[in-house]
Amino acid sequence: MAALADTAAGRAALLEFLLRTGDNTLILGHRVSEWCGHSPVLEEDIALANTALDLIGQTQLWLGLAGEVEGQGRTADNLAYLRDAAEFRNVLLVERPNGDFGQTLMRQFLFDAWHFELLKALQGSTDPRVAEIAAKAIKEVSYHLERSADLVVRLGDGTAESHRRMQNALDELWSYTGELFVGDDADEALADAGVAPSPASLKPAWDAAVARVLGEATLAIPSSGYVHKGGKRGVHTEHLGYILAEMQFLQRAYPGATW
Amino acid sequence: MYAQMVKTDSDRVKSLAEMNPQERDFQERVDRGEKIEPKEWMPEAYRKTLIRQIGQHAHSEIVGQLPEGNWITRAPTLERKAILLAKVQDEAGHGLYLYCAAETLGVSRDELLALLHSGKMKYSSIFNYPTLNWADIGAVGWLVDGAAIMNQVQLQKTSYGPYSRAMVRICKEESFHQRQGYDIMMKMAFGTPAQKAMAQDALNRFWYPALMMFGPSDKDSVHSAQSMAWKIKINTNDELRQKFVDQTVPQARYLGLTIPDPDLKWNEEKAGHDFTEPDWSEFFDVIAGNGPCNRERMNARVKAWEDGAWFRDGLVAHAEKVADRRAAARVAAE
Ligand SMILES: [Fe+2]
Ligand SMILES: [Fe+2]
Ligand SMILES: [Fe+2]
């Protein structure tokens, strides 16, 4: 860690990683919060609001640290509300539209299973600030994973209709999961310094967890190995622009105001 | 209020002398301030009235998620977004406690929801007004949760045990919501000229609808008299409205905002404010389904319910499969 933060390239890699992690939680939190008041049952309204709340809380921590590492005086809010799409570093998976409730749940499960493995590894980060955030977040995320995995099983192995919808959701989203495991130079530098695990190193555990849950859910893992990617380097789908237009409206329309 | 104009099925309140021994015993327990619990005998009209009142209150909590949810994705800071998410989550939780309280009276949540969706049961008129700018989220917390608290604080003393206990829990959270709403109003009212204009606009639009939350004057209403005898209503609508106005006027003054009522003034004699009544014809229009957002609110709730049918059915089917598998495993083991 000392070695990493000592060089400009090392700091840039750390900043990149923090933006990626914070943007993932921010954009997924935004998507999940779109369900407020519209979910299939009151218990889900509560659970989704709670998930979104956890993700926004984690965003404050990750982007707060990103601003600190950047050293330009930008706050978590500045980073969330005043960057344009090309500067966002979230994976494409989290910006996928909510679709039906099955797609929302499947997206959550595929993400949670990865998020959990990531945080587990980050608890041992050589950067104590990263380890500290991970230790706090993993408590929330292990609950998210327990919940989303449980629902995927129950709906996959529910009625013919719920099975069809969950399989459809999996087919829709599968090609967006590969990006979670694709690394670049920044990832490599972080892995070498022991700050964060290399993305590829998380794959075996994710594969095993996903195979177990989907098997129990009687869902078939799609055979296509195609990987949609780009989000980690700022090349997004059309959806992110609309998310940001909505999310950033007040900050953009009334610059400099205090809320 | 969250429950407005609840009918009681009676055309007048019976005196103790007219009651049969069971009814008299019940009324005397209520008069002594005892709590009535689910398994105990209660007059049928008491049970039905409570179902209407608690059901309407529960529906208000869940429909109330919609106008506030309208701004979650546009909240101006991460902290405001988190606070609003937590608030909307609390409101859904209130809905849950209240449906559970209603269930102790022998009506299921699904039955109550069916009545809401078919328009046979109502929710508070206030949630048929739109949230048009960010200060509306402040105004809702300050005025709507504020008015709700006026009503719910007194309902902590209500005669029905489960309802009273739900109110104790809910009131704690509602006062939190009110403070957070007022905090938004302070930021807006003391902010830029544009923010202050949004704050004043929000107050202009929410003032009279907030006063309507207490319902029309009920000093001569049989329903209210019966509900008060049963202690499922403690104060009259006018008493609560007066209290609300008296509490809110200094808060608006502190913000430097003008309450949209030129005739509002302190009346030394009654030690309260004189104020203009809301336009009750507008209230009855809203109750009849013609408020600015009635259609959107109901369509959103019905759509959520209908689109979610496969989800609920899937969970039920899975639970049945698990039970069948367990039973089969038990047979195999024997
Ligand atoms: Fe509430
Ligand atoms: Fe409320
Ligand atoms: Fe509230």
Automatic annotation (TrEMBL), chain A:
One of its GO terms (molecular function) is phenylacetyl-CoA 1,2-epoxidase activity. The keyword Chaperone does not apply. Keywords: Oxidoreductase. Its EC number is 1.14.13.149. Pfam families: PaaA_PaaC. It is an enzyme of class 1 (oxidoreductase). InterPro entries: Aromatic_CoA_ox/epox (IPR052703), Ferritin-like (IPR012347), Ferritin-like_SF (IPR009078), PaaA_PaaC (IPR007814), PaaC (IPR011882). The keyword Amino-acid biosynthesis does not apply. It comes from the Bacteria. PANTHER family: 1,2-PHENYLACETYL-COA EPOXIDASE, SUBUNIT C, PHENYLACETIC ACID DEGRADATION PROTEIN PAA. This is Phenylacetate-CoA oxygenase subunit PaaC.
Automatic annotation (TrEMBL), chain B:
This is 1,2-phenylacetyl-CoA epoxidase subunit A. NCBIfam families: PA_CoA_Oxy1 (TIGR02156). Its EC number is 1.14.13.149. It comes from the Bacteria. One of its GO terms (molecular function) is phenylacetyl-CoA 1,2-epoxidase activity. It comes from Alsobacter ponti. Pfam families: PaaA_PaaC (PF05138). Keywords: Oxidoreductase. InterPro entries: Aromatic_CoA_ox/epox, Ferritin-like, Ferritin-like_SF, PaaA, PaaA_PaaC.
